[in-house]
Amino acid sequence: MAILAKWLRKAVDTFVDPEREDRLREAKRLMQAEFFASQQKFVLANFLVRHPLSPQDSDFVRNQIYTELISRGWEDGILNSAEQEVAKWAATALQLSPETASKINQKF
Length: 108
Description:
Blueprint: H1 2-16, H2 20-38, H3 44-50, H4 55-73, H5 81-93, H6 98-106
Helix pairs in contact: 2-4, 4-5, 4-6
């Protein structure tokens, strides 16, 4: 049932907004590049001025970037203290709520 619901949602999204996937992919590429290049100097608000996103698209992209970062941290089966500090910084820089960051962390 969950697979059918996911497929149906994607079909409706594609019909309603056919360019969404490409737009999100490009937004993620741009945000990720700036996020990792700027590191401690990354300011989400400045990025969004240069690359406006809807709140939903922004949430999606920020969650994807954080999820990938956490996934890489857990590749060796442990999130060491340095990786935990990076995760905390990333969640703050990406302006993720503590609940969202926690939910993503619990996947791993």
